[in-house]
Specification:
Blueprint (H helix, E strand, L loop, with lengths): L8 H12 L5 H8 L3 H13 L19 E9 L4 H9 L4 E6 L6 E7 L2 H12 L4 E8 L23
Antiparallel strand pairs: 1-3, 1-4, 2-3
Helix pairs in contact: 1-2, 2-3
């Protein structure tokens, strides 16, 4: 479920508190923000219902599970086969996420592997999918900046979103 609702000052305060301490209880968030516990509980329930918060699995480092290598596979595909290609990619456990792009390529596929041979196998499996025309794999050598979102919440606790 997607909503067109954007964060207000209450949402921003709750989210900022959760960024500081993702495991905080509703009571702790209420104390940090000065909001009523019921307000915090109601908002968190709404976030869950509207899928505004990402899943816990995004916090797990693949290296901890034995997949220390990360790569992005830039992929050109036959557009009319995109749905089937998406289904085939979902069947590859090492595929973490897939983004459809505009411009010079069609898909950006984030994959992980146990070692170079494993990444080679995974890239070959992607290339063998019916409708995949061409791939180019780039190995992640260093993460210069990880996923972040706190900077979108102003220092005053208000969302900087319009």
């Amino acid at each position: 479920m997607h909503t067109d609702r954007t964060a207000d000052a209450i949402d921003a305060a709750i989210l900022a508190a959760l960024i500081r301490d993702p495991d905080a209880t509703n009571i702790a968030v209420a104390e940090q923000t000065g909001l009523a516990r019921n307000t915090v509980r109601t908002r968190l329930a709404r976030y869950a219902r509207e899928r505004m918060l990402r899943s816990f699995e995004r916090r797990i480092d693949p290296a901890f599970l034995g997949y220390p290598l990360r790569a992005y596979v830039v992929t050109k595909v036959t557009q009319r086969k995109l749905t089937a290609i998406g289904g085939a990619l979902a069947d590859i456990p090492e595929v973490l996420e897939v983004h459809g792009l505009t411009g010079v390529t069609d898909l950006l596929i984030h994959v992980v592997g146990r070692d170079a041979d494993d990444l080679y196998r995974i890239a070959g499996r992607i290339l063998s999918i019916d409708g995949v025309k061409r791939t180019s794999t780039g190995l992640v050598m260093q993460e210069l900046m990880g996923y972040r979102i706190a900077q979108l919440i102003g220092a005053d606790g208000r969302a900087t979103l319009s």
